[in-house]
Hints:
Among the domains are: 417-541, no CATH class; 654-807, no CATH class. The longest helix has 130 residues, at 654-783. A hairpin with a 3-residue loop joins strand 2 and strand 3 (228-234). The chain contains 24 helices and 17 strands. The strands form 6 sheets. Strands 4, 5, 8, 9, 10 and 11 form a 6-stranded antiparallel β-sheet that branches. It has a 3-stranded antiparallel β-sheet with strand order 3-2-12. A two-stranded antiparallel sheet has the order 1-17. By secondary structure, the protein is an alpha+beta fold.
Amino acid sequence: xxxxxxxxxxxxxxxxxxxxxxxxxxxxxxxxxxxxxxxxxxxxxxxxxxxxxxxxxxxxxxxxxxxxxxxxxxxxxxxxxxxxxxxxxxxxxxxxxxxxxxxxxxxxxxxxxxxxxxxxxxxxxxxxxxxxxxxxxxxxxxxxxxxxxxxxxxxxxxxxxxxxxxxxxxxxxxxxxxxxxxxxxxxxxxxxxxxxxxxxxxxxxxxxxxxxxxxxxxxxxxxxxxxxxxxxxxxxxxxxxxxxxxxxxxxxxxxxxxxxxxxxxxxxxxxxxxxxxxxxxxxxxxxxxxxxxxxxxxxxxxxxxxxxxxxxxxxxxxxxxxxxxxxxxxxxxxxxxxxxxxxxxxxxxxxxxxxxxxxxxxxxxxxxxxxxxxxxxxxxxxxxxxxxxxxxxxxxxxxxxxxxxxxxxxxxxxxxxxxxxxxxxxxxxxxxxxxxxxxxxxxxxxxxxxxxxxxxxxxxxxxxxxxxxxxxxxxxxxxxxxxxxxxxxxxxxxxxxxxxxxxxxxxxxxxxxxxxxxxxxxxxxxxxxxxxxxxxxxxxxxxxxxxxxxxxxxxxxxxxxxxxxxxxxxxxxxxxxxxxxxxxxxxxxxxxxxxxxxxxxxxxxxxxxxxxxxxxxxxxxxxxxxxxxxxxxxxxxxxxxxxxxxxxxxxxxxxxxxxxxxxxxxxxxxxxxxxxxxxxxxxxxxxxxxxxxxxxxxxxxxxxxxxxxxxxxxxxxxxxxxxxxxxxxxxxxxxxxxxxxxxxxxxxxxxxxxxxxxxxxxxxxxxxxxxxxxxxxxxxxxxxxxxxxxxxxxxxxxxxxxxxxxxxxx
Length: 810
């Protein structure tokens, strides 16, 4: 009951559920909200004050604030307002504050947040620990798995080539890659839901802009198994809620928002719950508001022009505690069972078996639509499909995700609201500068008439002051006497008046002062917005300036991340209660595709898990720059590969990126040392092999030389032997020739002797013949019986015979 602050008209929250579901209860609750917040038309109500403050802050954030206040201030402060200097002044607001708003909004959005879901229940923790232990064992036995893969060609549940090599790399790998099927399914479904609702590009951007400009932002979730999970932007100026001092609205009891809609749209939403008489009554009560006209009757026929009337409808919801009853019953076999009895229970008397009642208090959400100022309610009842924490079903959450930077007395304080006064003074100073410029005089002259009266023309006549002025204007030369008639010296009679703007430097200094005040309030200094970058600024000075800006804007960045986290948690709880046979469940399955159906096998198990949402974001610019600098240094020194640099840049957490850089660098250096050692060993082995090869070549050379020498000696011996043989043969032949010659000489001598003997005999015979012839001749002659023998013929015959014998070869 303490949560219903500011009004005592709220109905009894401990009433029975049947009473709470009645329209009378809903009307009482809506009227209590209306009485607490008031209406937009009541300037003293909280709703109207907040609406006016938010509208003003939005105009300042967009640079479109009302300029009438500046006109009034200038007219009241300027005593010479009738001189016309304020007529040509440009009253357009200086867009300084919008610049700071855009810088801060874009700074938050540039982090590109995304949800990282992790199951935090004990079952999931034990399952993930088993997976981590399995991965650790695989990492330790990586070499064996590689050998098994090489031997068999098969891979178990993971390719060993994708496993890390070191414990540090294994820790990063496990933190980033170990997810259960349910976690993967929830992660995919959450990202898909955010994408379908265009949350990051539309809703979240508007919410961050509201945090900066208004100090709070609101997102409403609607959950329908047939139409899907929708996240809708709600304008904070139309949002109402129970009294709270929590900037993250964790203790809201009721919430809602006001929507202006025509009665025609109201008919479509309310349907048959409101009659035509109710619409006429609504039109009469809202006549004169929201530019509504009147109900016209012509020719006895009523014209329903009020269909276009704009009416304010409050869509509200609240949390109430109901008692849920169960009955413990014993059957005839002695077993005890529990039966759900609903929210009303009456103990049965005189039962055959023992019965015992139990109850559990649970939070339920009731919602409805209320037409403000008209006492009309429709669409009221207990909300269905309310997401709950599966491990604590007694708790319920409203469909609104709300955050604020700070809030007090229902009024949030924003960055823009803190700068409004300085923005007004800056704008006023800018207008005063314009006024000073408008009042500035052109270049002028100071002319001393008395100093020009006594200047003579020369031949008669004197120059008048106006004549001298004309000569000065045309030629730039003027004539005067340095002495006056009394004999004293006098100043030049014509002196120039410079073109100066009155108080211009003081006004510029004042403008810069208010600009510095805005920088101090917003926390956006020159280093962050890069308006005046200094090349000689030290890195430490820049980092200090960035750190100071981050500290000043932390409540805004933190509020935006908490909103993102709240929306993601709401989506997860809605996914956990989706019936498997619902249309939206089938849509999710079809969107994933057949390839990922195995991953969505854990989709049906989502209610078993309790998920924790961590919003991941891109690292800070300074962290990214420092990391990139280290990557470039490591790349230039060839301590990491290009693939390592790409993997490091893909990580969004700077700590993990730095750890991965250190791990890959160590791994690369170890690989380089190993390669250097292998190269050294290879070089030593090559040198040894070269020495061995040289030694072997020398040995072979010596062997070849020895072999050549041996061959040479052998050849020489063979040649000598051949020469000896040839000499021997020659000698032998010579000896044989000698012997033959000797033998031949002997034979010839013998033959000669024989021939000589023969010749001698022949001579002897010849002599005998001659003697015989002579004797015959002598006889014949003596007897005169025959002629004489021819001595000459016989001699010649014998001589030729001897010659032929002598010429015969030996």
